[in-house]
Design a protein that fits this description.
two-stranded antiparallel ribbon; single chain; 71% helix
C-alpha cells in the first residue's frame, strides 16, 4: 500500500512536472488552503451528508415508512440553517478563490434552505406521491438546494458552471419524477 505523502509527487512525476517543487507547493499551499476552506463550507457539506443519509436510509426502510423521511429532511435542514446563522458576519474566499463567502451568499443560502421547508411539507402531504419511495425524491430535492447554495457563492466561471449543472440536472429529475403525469412528461 502506498503512503499518502508520496501520492502528490507520484502524480506530478506522471504529469512530467518537477515533482519536488510541485509536491511541496501542494503540501505547503494547496492543502492548507483546502483545510481552511472547509470551515466555511460546512453548511453545504451538511446538506450533502443529509441527502446521502436520507438516500441510504430509504434503502432500509419499508415502503410505507419511506414517506416519513420528510421529517428527517426537515430536522436535518435546521443544522445548516444554524451554521449559516453562526457564520453570518464572516467574509472571504474559499477554495483558492473559487467561491466567495459573504453576507449576500449567506442570505441566499438561508433563503434556499428555508424555501425547501414548504416544498418538503407539501410533498409529504401530497396524494401524488402515495405508494412511492420518497427517499430518492428528498435526495434529489436536497441536491438541488445544494446546487443553489453553490451557485450563490460561486466566484469562478468553472464553479458557476458546476453549480448550474448540479441545480439544473436535479431540477430536470424533479420535473419528471411522477412519470405518469402528463405535466412532467
Amino acid at each position: 500500500m502506498l503512503p499518502l505523502d508520496s501520492l502528490p509527487s507520484m502524480l506530478f512525476q506522471a504529469l512530467g512536472a518537477d515533482a519536488a517543487s510541485s509536491a511541496g507547493e501542494f503540501r505547503n499551499v494547496v492543502y492548507p488552503a483546502i483545510l481552511d476552506s472547509v470551515r466555511l463550507f460546512w453548511p453545504e457539506m451538511q446538506v450533502v451528508v443529509l441527502a446521502l443519509g436520507i438516500l441510504i436510509a430509504d434503502f432500509f426502510l419499508p415502503l410505507r415508512r419511506s414517506r416519513d423521511l420528510a421529517w428527517v429532511a426537515l430536522l436535518g435542514i435546521l443544522v445548516p440553517l444554524a451554521r449559516i446563522g453562526i457564520q453570518y458576519g464572516e467574509s472571504g474566499t474559499i477554495f483558492r478563490g473559487m467561491m466567495a463567502v459573504d453576507p449576500f451568499a449567506h442570505f441566499f443560502k438561508f433563503f434556499f434552505l428555508l424555501a425547501s421547508v414548504p416544498v418538503i411539507l407539501l410533498s409529504y402531504l401530497s396524494k401524488t406521491f402515495e405508494g412511492r419511495r420518497m427517499g430518492e425524491y428528498y435526495f434529489v430535492l436536497l441536491v438541488a438546494v445544494f446546487g443553489a447554495m453553490l451557485m450563490v457563492s460561486s466566484s469562478h466561471f468553472l464553479m458557476i458552471f458546476l453549480s448550474l449543472e448540479t441545480l439544473s440536472v436535479s431540477s430536470y429529475i424533479l420535473v419528471g419524477y411522477v412519470r405518469r403525469d402528463r405535466k412532467g412528461a
